[in-house]
Amino acid sequence: MERGLGWCHPDVVKFCHPGLIPILERLDYPMVSIDTSLIGFARSANNAPPRHLGTRYSADGRFLKEPGNTVVSHVTAGTPSHAAILAVRDRLMSMPEAGQFAFTHASSLHMTIFQGIIEYRRRQPYWPTDMARDTPIDVMTSHFRDKLRNFAPLSPFRARITEVTPLGLTLEGDSVDDRRCLREWRDAFSGVFGYRHPDHDDYVFHITFAYIIGWLADAVLPRWQEVLAEQLAYLKERSPVVDLDPPAFCSFEDMNHFEELIVFGRSTKTVRNAP
Fold first, then answer.
1. Which sign does the torsion angle of CA 61, 213, 105, 93 carry?
2. What is the mean pLDDT of the segment spanning 191-216?
3. CB 106 within 8 Å of CB 112
4. Rounded to whole angstroms, how far apart are CA atoms 245 and 250?
5. Chain segment 5-36, per-residue pLDDT in tens
6. Residues 156-165, buried b or exposed e (16+ Cβ, 10 A)?
7. Contacts of 219 (CB under 8 A, 6+ apart)
8. Residue-range domains of the chain with CATH
9. Strands 210-212 and 101-103
10. How far from chain centre, in Å, is Cα 7?
11. CA distance 204 to 110
């Protein structure tokens, strides 16, 4: 989707993105500030339920069993970044529409570095070609753990927040060198895991707060846009660079907890054996 239309009169939006017109016409604002990434959460822009509803989480906000593994950098606990991010999460949880989201546990806050495998995505190119697609998840986790045991850590990196969305934060490398470093980490893990996702080269780094249960009413989008902009300004002031732990290979049963098995710091360290 296009992003960053800024202050857009409906006629301008019609020229830029005709699909937005039905939504904007429902809003009682002569001049509407709506980013198209936020439009994607509108009820009028969606004719199907959210894609993970019923498999990753339920309609009452409970997280369902969806085991897998991944490489993440947890937000470093006890840091100014951690406190600022938790404050933003709390602000979104206080929104009148918060009940339309399933919020993950605060302890799960992390930035994904490389996507591992997950129960409901047993297909190419999300699964290594040398492993049967019906292999149990715990066997896959042990397989990757063994392959990663001698993985040589790459250079550390810094990340900054670029956007606050209803689901969390969008991040990127803080500098050109940091962005290059993140690409190198992803390339290295791709070689070990044995697959490359379609979005490998343009993967959007993020920290998830929540998953959407029900799409937002069109009329509330301006209020959300205002709150999200305020929270982004707050984070840029309080935490221009996010404090992240070194990348770690993790296992999970659902989206509420990511158990570190191997930490790739200055030297690779096994935290515990996978089950």
1. negative
2. 97
3. no
4. 13
5. 332 333 223 323 445 555 555 554 444 568 88
6. ebbbbbebbb
7. 26, 27, 28
8. 50-213+223-270 (3.90.1140.10)
9. antiparallel
10. 26
11. 13
pLDDT of residue 226: 96
Long-range contacts of range 94-97, CB-CB < 8 Å, 24 or more positions apart? 95/224, 95/227, 96/220, 97/216, 97/217, 97/220, 97/224
Phi-psi bin for 21: left (phi > 0), alpha (psi -120 to 50), beta? alpha
Q: Supply 105's token pair.
A: 């546990």
Q: What percent of the chain has pLDDT over 70?
A: 85
pLDDT digits (tens, 9 = 90+) for 215-240: 999 999 999 999 999 999 999 999 99
pTM for the complete prediction? 0.86
For the four alpha carbons of 91, 96, 101 and 103, in that order, the dihedral sign comes to positive
The average pLDDT across 257-263 equals 98
Compute the Cα dihedral for 169, 103, 71, 136 and give only its sign: negative
Burial class of residue 201 in the structure, from the number of CB atoms within 10 Å of its CB (0-12 exposed, 13-18 middle, 19+ buried): exposed
User: Residues 22, 27, 33, 36: is their CA dihedral positive or negative?
Assistant: negative
What is the pLDDT confidence band of residue 203, given thresholds at 50, 70 and 90? very high
Q: How far is CA 188 from CA 112, 152, 202, 207, in A?
A: 15, 9, 16, 22
